[in-house]
Design a protein that fits this description.
binds inosinic acid; 5 helices; 7 strands
């Protein structure tokens, strides 16, 4: 089954392809699908924003679309940066600028717990929609470690791996990440969905 990935983030595309390899689900970039959509993410939850992106890519391409809306949540900062993870600290910052801003906000904070969230939505041209969620727990470091991954990975110590995601290999990260968990849940959900659909059309 082929889906257009509703994202312009090359890191996400790479992670999607690695996590989905061998699953029977393949993803086309927006460029490969001949579209360039970038809808306003004005939802109030990760779920709403992932649906906004997948609906826009499906409408523009006429193909099934898949989207991830993801981010980092820090309970001690009342959930910041949350759905604003990609724009935290204001426009124009790089990934490094954003994690340095986070470290500054966390300077005197003792409770360093944090978790990544990924909501994945699939939207089909007939209007059917599926959404799943994956989470990955850890702690915010006091200084960056490693340069692997993207976004906040260098300042996130994974509980599962016992090390910063910035120092993890792609295989290690994808095995425990919010996106890995959500995508594996979506593969299972898609199998159920197609089985139900086949059942309905055979009736
Ligand atoms: P989105 O593209 O609107 O979903 O924004 C996601 C933002 O959350 C990214 O730009 C990163 O700042 C952050 N983020 C999401 N997933 C990850 C990850 O796997 N590692 C590090 N940062 C992430």
């Amino acid at each position: 089954m082929r889906f257009v990935l509703a994202s312009n983030n090359a890191h996400k595309l790479e992670e999607f392809r690695a996590i989905l390899s061998g699953s029977g689900v393949t993803v086309l970039s927006q460029r490969e699908a001949g579209i360039a959509v970038d809808p306003e993410e004005n939802g109030t939850t990760f779920e709403e924003n992932s649906l906004i992106k997948a609906r826009a890519a499906c409408a523009a391409s006429g193909l099934p679309a898949i989207a991830d809306d993801s981010g980092l949540t820090v309970p001690a900062l009342n959930g910041e940066p949350g759905i604003y993870s990609a724009r935290y600290g204001g426009p124009g910052l790089t990934d490094e600028g954003r994690y340095r801003y986070l470290l500054e906000r966390m300077r005197d904070v003792e409770d360093r717990r944090a978790f990544f969230v990924s909501c994945i939505s699939c939207v089909f041209p007939d209007g059917d929609e599926l959404t799943v969620r994956g989470e990955c727990a850890g702690r915010i470091l006091t200084a960056p470690e490693g340069s692997g991954g993207f976004g906040y990975d260098p300042v996130f110590l994974s509980d599962d791996l016992g090390k910063a995601l910035g120092t993890a290999t792609p295989e290690e990260k994808n095995g425990i990440s919010h996106r890995g968990r959500a995508l594996r849940a979506m593969c299972a959900r898609l199998e159920e969905y197609f089985a139900e659909k086949d059942g309905r059309s055979a009736e």
